[in-house]
Amino acid sequence: MGVFGKRDAHVRALQQVIEATNAFLVFGGLFSPWSGPSMKADSTQPNAGPTCTVRLLGRMDYDTAWEFQKSLAERRACLQVPDTLLFVEHPPTYTLGLGGREDNFRTPPSELARLGAVVRRVDRGGDVTFHGPGQLVGYPVISLEGRRGGVLRYLRELEEVLIVALKHWGVQAQTIRRHTGVWVGNEKIAAIGVKVTTRHITQHGFALNLSTDLRFFDHIVPCGIPEKGVTSIGRLTGYAPSLQQAAKTVAQAFGEVFHRCMAWEDASAGTDGNPS
């Protein structure tokens, strides 16, 4: 089986994740897709719009996180759960999107696999990118049904979320025409690649470099754009927020841009529903 072959499902790991998240996956009976009896909204979030659950999953391998996303997307499409924003940190992983070319690997995928990195062909938009320690990966699983602007508007809103969040750390970021993602000068600080299902549910999302070892990007042409580079918050400011700190800031920005009341449902959450 090649490095892009489909791996066996991580059944046990997935079961553990689902069992740990039953508080928000199962509410019992039919309910409004925006609320549930176990929801507790972040009291620091000023938005009074529909609820969006936030989950900080911590370190998790890519395949387990992907299976979890798909399971959650099915539940969202059936109105069993509200919109949800998942945060995760992956071990070293390279993913190649639907529009990606394998020649954008500077190091052959087979060699990367021998070095211990996971390489996956995935069903999101975009080209090749890297996920790894020191990077906050966000997977919004939300419904776009009835929203004007479709996926293009959604992409622009994700970019705005990250630009707003980066201001919190004194980083002035922007977008570049024809190049999805968030940039500081000619260096990308956050990659974005998404999928929208036939039932209008979003999958995949964004990857924000906090303290990522940028040498991992030397093995690829990031996002298939050879004339651009990559950077991180730590490289730009000398300080990198923790995964929990970054998740809280990005979740707040997500609530502002998407007009959601962000409700933390997280094993590491404090008594106030915020990540500790």
TrEMBL record:
GO terms for cellular component: cytoplasm. It is found in: Cytoplasm. Belongs to the LipB family. It catalyses: octanoyl-[ACP] + L-lysyl-[protein] = N(6)-octanoyl-L-lysyl-[protein] + holo-[ACP] + H(+). Its EC number is 2.3.1.181. The keyword Mitochondrion does not apply. Pathway: Protein modification; protein lipoylation via endogenous pathway; protein N(6)-(lipoyl)lysine from octanoyl-[acyl-carrier-protein]: step 1/2. It comes from Desulfoglaeba alkanexedens ALDC. Substrate binds at R124, G125, G126, D127, V128, T129, F130, H131, A191, I192, G193, G205, F206, A207. GO terms for molecular function: lipoyl(octanoyl) transferase activity. In the reaction, the free carboxyl group of octanoic acid is attached via an amide linkage to the epsilon-amino group of a specific lysine residue of lipoyl domains of lipoate-dependent enzymes. Its main location: cytoplasm. It holds the Pfam family LplA-B_cat. The record marks K188 as: Lowers pKa of active site Cys. This is Octanoyltransferase. Catalyzes the transfer of endogenously produced octanoic acid from octanoyl-acyl-carrier-protein onto the lipoyl domains of lipoate-dependent enzymes. Lipoyl-ACP can also act as a substrate although octanoyl-ACP is likely to be the physiological substrate. The gene is lipB. Gene3D superfamilies: Bira Bifunctional Protein, Domain 2. The active site is at C223 (acyl-thioester intermediate). The keyword Phosphoprotein does not apply. GO terms for biological process: protein lipoylation. Keywords: Acyltransferase, Cytoplasm, Transferase. Residues 79-262 form the BPL/LPL catalytic domain.
